[in-house]
Amino acid sequence: MSLSADSTFTNLTEPDQIRTFHEVTSKIRCICIPSITIKSCSFNNCTVSAKLKLFIENRIQKGETADVIVDKMVHGFGEEALSDPIIQKFVEAGNTGMANSVVFGFGENILATPDSTWINLSLALAGFLGIILIYLYMKRKHPGSLKRTQASENSVKQVEDSFQKYLSEIQEKQK
């Protein structure tokens, strides 16, 4: 696994800690944009998630594993999390909701589970649109070929009529 290919910045330097950081941040949702993981969340656009990443780094430096951190994000780190400098900054800034979520847990909604609803709807819409386009193409093409068939039948009939007229004129002249 290439550590340099991962998309988020970390202050951690040990490969095992970096691996743990990437594992945790790929399992947690971004606070500002819940449809992406916190790993993909931009520091510029979401300072809350940036601070949570620093909090995650602190937990990794304390020796917590990825599974433990993810579990505690869901169920809470407990009152001892209030001693973390990042959580203290949340409290000082008046963001007690975020501090409480870290202490008591964010619940299952913090987990970055893939939501297949949009994928399924997109595929269904694409399939439906494809069927309609095929139908319209065939409908458009079919009458055109039908008109050409009718036109060719009409021209054959005109040729036959002209030929019959020509034959009748010849017969008239022979009389």
Provide the descriptors you would attach to this structure in a database record.
6 helices; disordered N terminus; 175 residues; 2 domains; single chain; rod-shaped
Quick structural gist:
By secondary structure, the protein is an all-alpha fold. The chain folds into 2 domains: 96 residues, no CATH class; 59 residues.
Furnish the topology, listing elements before pairings:
Blueprint: H1 15-25, H2 47-61, H3 66-75, H4 85-92, H5 96-104, H6 116-174
| CA distance, first residue to last residue | 102 Å
State the helical fraction: 55-70%
Report the sheet with the most strands, covering strand number, pairing sense and barrel closure.
none
Tally of DSSP β-strands: 0
Supply Rg: 36 Å
With helices defined by DSSP (H or I, 4 residues minimum), what is the helix count? 6
Q: What's the mean pLDDT score?
A: 83
Order of H and E elements: HHHHHH
Shape: rod-shaped
Low-confidence stretches: 1-6
- In terms of structural class, how would the helical and strand content be classed? mainly alpha
Beta-strand fraction estimate:
under 5%
